[in-house]
Amino acid sequence: MNDLYADVARQLDELKPARLVVAFSGGVDSRVLLHLVARYREQHAIPCVAVHVHHGLSAHANEWAAQCQEWGAQAGIEVCVERVTLSSDSGESLEQLARDARYAALAKHVDSQTLMLLGQHADDQVETFLLALKRGSGPKGLASMAAHGNFAQGQLLRPLLTVTRAAIEAYAQQAQLSWVEDESNQDTRFDRNFLRHHVTPTLTKRWPGFYQAIQRSAELCAAQEALLTELLQEKLQLALNADNSLSVDVLDSCSALVRGQLLRQWLQQLKVPMPSRQHTDMIWHEVALAQQDANPKLQLGKYQVRRFQQRLYCIETEKDFSSWRATLNMNQTLRLPDSLGTLRLAAGENNTLSLPEGHHSFTVVFDPSGLSACPVGRSGSRKLKKLYQEYGVPSWQRRQLPIVMCDDKVVAVVGLFISRDFNGKDCELIWDKSEKFMANS
Questions:
Q1: Where, in this chain's numbering, is ATP bound (predicted)?
Q2: Which one of 27, 107, 251, 285 counts the least CB within 10 Å of its CB?
Q3: H or E element, residue 117
């Protein structure tokens, strides 16, 4: 018992965290981790909370949450319960959905001063490696789980990553700890459970050092990936634009091997799940090299890779706001749909709009179909579709720009232009854009 605590304490001492958050499912690994952290907290007086993610997938979910809070109270550590809902129509596997929801819930508790502690162990690492091997992953996937890295605004640590499940269970029994047994862990329809019950026991019985070999291979793959990233960083910066788009011309000057690695590093930097080699090839051949008059796109889960003006963009799939409309009143804040931010009409220091007599409100829409306008400084009106092209607005943004209307006339396309007939000094339009819109810009 003391050996395991000494190893975990050593890892924490090296990182010198200001605050700890424990991912606490209630399973044996996180139960042991909480026990170890409680001892460390007592000795070092470091702030610590635990977070239990309630997926609602089991009939026992409420019971588990209550039990985790009770165990936390016994250890003197507050347990926060985060309830999440999984979207079954996204096309992702239930395992992936639960994992994504869990990490999103945990991230809410991590700031720049926080070290998130996760209970994954050596058996988990073997399973992760074998799953990556099954998918035909390269060094990035085969690197599996890192013991230490960045997470949300802070950092994460997996202090039990070299400890076997058997050793963790032995610790729990010696410390007289009880834990949650998730019945879904016995369901071998899930790939990870199939490996756990039918594959890794056979491998480790035949080769007792298999765990250590997997760990070495994962570390070597991680080192190789880090080296590639370092060697290609200068080339990536040359291809990368301020809006996080990637230059097709720079990519075209590279070899196929370098180009593929740059595409993967670009997507990784944008925190997009790694595509398969087939998808990487499709990004280049079907999107980047599509006909110049085409509007190509490739769907990668909830993201799309698009091309515009010889640049590749990776954006979240756009939504159709054609039917959305709302009234924008003077000195009131209007919340736009889908986290596109807020819009405000007010008098200020940078007034550029005139209010027609008798009008103190406008209508906001997103559908440019059939609308025309004459921007300030120009003569003659043109269809908004043509104006968007002239202003260099990517096709996926054209139905995400708020259009301000007065009766049947376009007052302004916010962030783009004001119509000549509404140019004045009465008020201004203030668009507080969301992070999501900025990321897709």
A1: 25-30
A2: 285
A3: strand 114-117
User: Could you give the CA distance from residue 230 to residue 101 in angstroms, rounded to a whole number?
Assistant: 31
Topology match between the domains 2-211 and 240-316? no
Binding residues for ATP: 25-30
pLDDT in the model for residue 440: 52
Cα 202 to Cα 167, 186, 196, 436: the distances in Å are 18, 17, 10, 47
Q: Find how far residue 5's CA is from the centre of its chain.
A: 33
Under a CB-based contact definition with an 8 Å cutoff, are residues 404 and 371 in contact? no
How confident is the model over 329-338, as pLDDT tens digits?
988 899 999 8
CATH dotted code for 240-316: 1.20.59.20
| CA 134 centroid distance within chain | 24
Question: How many other CB atoms are found less than 10 A from the CB of residue 285?
Answer: 10
Q: How many residues does the chain have?
A: 441
Which residues lie closer than 8 Å to 246 by C-beta, 6 or more apart? 239, 240, 262, 263, 266, 311, 312, 313
DSSP character string of 306-335: EEETTEEEEEEPP---TT-EEEEEBT-EEE
Q: pLDDT (tens digit, 9 = 90+) per residue, 24-80?
A: 999 999 999 999 999 999 999 999 999 999 987 788 889 999 999 999 999 999 999
In this structure, which CATH number among 3.30.870.10, 3.40.50.2000, 3.30.240.20, 3.40.50.620 belongs to the domain 2-211? 3.40.50.620
Give the separation between CA 441 and CA 437, rounded to whole angstroms.
6
Known binding site: residues? Answer: 25-30
Q: Is 331 left (phi over 0), alpha (psi -120 to 50) or beta?
A: left
pLDDT in tens, 75-125: 999 999 999 887 665 556 677 778 888 999 999 999 999 999 999 999 999
Q: Are 153 and 112 in contact (CB under 8 A)?
A: yes
Residue pair 38/66 in contact by the 8 Å Cβ criterion: no
